[in-house]
Design a protein that fits this description.
2 copies of one chain form a homodimer. With 148 residues, chain A is α+β, with helices and mostly antiparallel strands. Chain A is 39% helix and 20% strand. The N and C termini of chain A lie far apart (59 Å). Chain B binds a DNA duplex (25 and 25 nucleotides) through α2 and α4.
DNA sequence: GTGAATGCAAAACCTTTGCAACTGG
DNA sequence: CCAGTTGCAAAGGTTTTGCATTCAC
């Protein structure tokens, strides 16, 4: 079924799961292997469809469970564009995402150590029409409240 | 009903709608007035609840329609955090958003002309744990295809 | 008058949940 | 052995849609 790079990349995958305290179920391992093997930011359903090819009995709920576990333990990123289905990304480097409004594709944009929001260097031919920066953290009020 | 700044801001609101080619329905006008009067990034449902106070017969579908029209014609922004309900923002200045993971609040972060993603100046007491930069536009492949 | 907007309810879409059966450590 | 995981189906939250009625222009 999966011919290439079995002996070398198979161990690390299970090791990475175990290392994060994740129980090593065949489904979880398989979902992670499927995800690692792609670079097109699949939706949960797309992961499900690909996972089913090698494991026909796997269920959608399990795929959601596995993806959620991977995201929570830091082995995958969840990418949300507008309100369409979440997409998943095994690339854990600190990078941004580019959404093509024409083809719907999502591309990883690596940002060098000093690269910042507006002013990122893009691959040749990419044209940006909109930059969206969103910050997360704790606001002033909540920080004040904590100090009491 | 709404006592303050009626004569001055009321006209502009309807004018702004008309100016964008939007038909001036009472519902649309009311939804926009409700939105303009807030600074807390309400969800569609929250806009609906507030709109109902002055217009009890308005429907959820109409609120969605109106908000969508406002966003499309450039009078409001739609803010998505994770996959929770979209929030709406009448502030059309070029700004970023800060999501407080403790209280769930969303704050506008004005970015001066030269301000960039990572490195933004935040209000006192705000603590950033995560910055998410997402770009939109047209990718290299689509741009190439267009040139044919 | 006519195309656009409204209101209602039903459907769609993506995701989560309840629960019984199973299984990895 | 038992907490964590799976699979199924059903429910959940948010948004969209179909359609008849109404309205702004």
């Amino acid at each position: 079924m999966n011919g290439s790079s079995s002996n070398l990349s198979d161990s690390p995958v299970s090791a990475r799961l175990a290392m994060r305290g994740l129980r090593l179920t065949p489904q979880r391992q398989h979902v992670y292997e499927v995800l690692v093997g792609v670079r097109d930011h699949p939706t949960a359903e797309e992961v499900f469809l690909r996972a089913k090819q090698g494991m026909p009995e796997i269920s959608m709920a399990t795929v959601y469970n596995c993806l959620d576990a991977l995201v929570r333990c830091g082995l995958a990123k969840q990418v949300n564009v507008d309100r369409s289905a979440s997409r998943f990304c095994p690339n854990m480097s600190d990078h941004d995402h580019f959404y093509c409004e024409r083809c719907g594709g999502i591309y990883d944009i690596e940002n060098g150590a000093g690269a910042v929001g507006r002013g990122i260097e893009l691959p040749r031919g990419f044209e940006v029409t909109h930059v969206d920066v969103s910050l997360r953290g704790v606001c002033g009020s909540c920080n004040d409240a904590e100090k009491v």
